[in-house]
Amino acid sequence: MRLRAGGMAAVAAVALVAACSRNPKPVAVAQPAQPNADSARLAQMHRDSMLAMARADSIAKARAAETHADSVRSEVMRETVDSAKDVTNTGLTTADAALMAERVHFDYNKSDLMEADVHLLQQKLAILQAHPQLAVQIAGNCDERGSDEYNMALGERRAAAAKRWLVAHGIAESRITIISYGKERPLDSGHDEAAWAKNRRDDFMVTRSVG
Q1: pTM score, whole prediction
Q2: Which residues, 6 or more positions from 157, have their beta carbon under 8 angstroms from its beta carbon?
Q3: Residue 11 and residue 14: Cα distance in Å, rounded?
């Protein structure tokens, strides 16, 4: 009886092992970690803050451009559009004064100097070299298309382009000031390409006798 009982116990053990091998115990699979809710919220708050700052900066620039445009409009009401001012006591001849007042023009939406205008700047350069006591103001202008903010920036780039050329060719930077009038000082009030081409320009004005 003891042998039979032992044999039965062995058979039972074998059966148990076989059953375990056929039905392995499920193993828990690690789930991917869920994003931390606090981190995601902080990241979204940072993005929102950056967007708000960008919008505020854009609004501030637009308001500054509009304020400047209003100032220019007031000035235009007081002044003539022609940039050829009184050059008394500058030492310039009438011909040289007229040449200094000649305008540089630009292609649409551009601030690059064109070949014909470089030739004109060379003539202005000769006058400024011959009269080192003179200073000049360069005013950038645009046609009527585009916002106040955009045109103020474009006008400044146009004036700066002429100044850079003159400075690169030996005129002291302190002798040249620049200003942008945007679209507020049109030479031609028309609304076609012929008018716009006239209005995309730099005006030159002898401002003072240096020294």
Answers
A1: 0.62
A2: 111, 140
A3: 5
To which H or E segment does residue 39 belong? Answer: helix 37-78
The phi, psi pair for 37, rounded to 5°, reads -60, -40
Contact at 8 Å (CB) between 143 and 200? yes
DSSP state of 5: H
Closest residue by Cα to residue 117 from 165, 72, 75, 70: 165
Distances 128 to 18, 45, 48, 116 between C-alpha atoms, Å: 106, 57, 53, 19
Question: What is the gyration radius of the CA atoms in the chain, in angstroms?
Answer: 39
Confidence at 33, pLDDT banded by 50, 70, 90: low
Provide the 3-class DSSP secondary structure of residue 179: strand
In angstroms, the CA 113 to CA 110 distance is 9
